[in-house]
Design a protein that fits this description.
heterotrimer; A alpha/beta (100); B alpha/beta (104); C alpha/beta (57); B: 104 residues; alpha/beta; 5-stranded parallel beta sheet; 34% helix; 20% strand; globular; C: 57 residues; 3-stranded parallel beta sheet; 2 helices; 30% strand
Chain lengths: 100, 104, 57
């Protein structure tokens, strides 16, 4: 069985947290799920959201960010637009989530 | 036989597109499932929403998102089957079981 | 692999860059959802003909 690979990308700060939750929901359904916080700096995550990301990592998912402040503050994996583009090529489903 | 289509709705601005695409896909004999999450769950209160529920084969919303948008779980949107006040697993079904995928 | 890029608004530099990489050496089609009254019938035909549809912001 081939597992689905899904990448959700967030460009608006009001959509990032729920989008990460959505990625976690897919990981629970046995998919490779990735979230990418783009463009905007988001607040430091609370314990509950950090736990969600840890759960996502336990299921081989990850949250990336193109914004250095998010990497420093929230421990996201750094990614450039070029690297993201290459990663998207491997995905079965690409989800530009919410608004920009 | 027409391909099946799953639509994942994350924004509150695209209901007309959801309805237009669903209508066109149904006219081609497609099986269409729509799932609303986060701010898009506010669309369940749009006057056009009950019509979409009749048009599509399956419409569901993320009940957790709906609550976070300020609605009560007991306030079932008109046209929606109460069992379709559901979880993110609905998104998983769209990805796993439908031929074509669209996010709006 | 045939990719359909659907645009909900005019693609900015970031989207253009991502589309360029994702569609490299692949067959690609586009549909502008933001332009006036979209032809949903034509869009659904394109979705059915594609292996993957990406609906950009």
């Amino acid at each position: 069985m081939e597992y689905k690979k899904v990448c959700l990308m967030y460009r608006h700060e009001d959509y990032a947290l729920d989008g990460i939750r959505s990625a976690l929901g897919l990981a629970v359904e046995n998919m490779y799920a990735y979230g990418v916080v783009m463009d905007k700096e988001i607040d430091e995550l609370d314990e509950l959201n950090q736990e969600s990301i840890e759960m996502l990592r336990d299921m081989e998912g990850e949250v990336f960010s193109t914004v250095a402040a998010n990497v420093e503050k929230n421990g996201f994996e750094a990614i450039t637009i070029e690297e993201l583009g290459e990663k998207l090529r491997e995905m079965t489903h690409i989800v530009p989530y919410g608004i920009k | 036989m027409a391909k099946s289509l799953g639509i994942f709705v994350t924004t509150p601005d695209n209901l007309d597109h959801v309805i237009g695409i669903t209508k066109a896909a149904k006219a081609k004999g497609s099986n269409v499932k729509v799932f609303f999450t986060w701010k898009a769950t506010t669309l369940a209160k749009d006057p056009k929403f009950p019509g979409l529920c009749k048009l599509a084969d399956d419409v569901s919303i993320c009940v957790d998102s709906y609550k976070k948008q300020g609605f009560s779980v007991d306030d079932v949107p008109e046209g929606l089957d109460p069992k379709k006040m559901a979880t993110q697993a609905q998104h998983g079904i769209i990805i796993e079981d439908f031929d074509c995928y669209l996010s709006l | 692999m045939k990719i359909l890029n659907v645009y909900r608004s005019e693609p900015d530099e970031t989207v253009q860059k991502l589309v360029e990489i994702v569609t490299r050496d692949r067959e690609a089609d586009t549909f502008d959802l933001y332009a006036g009254n979209p032809d949903y019938d034509a869009l659904v035909d394109k979705i059915f003909a594609a292996d993957q549809t990406i609906c950009w912001w």
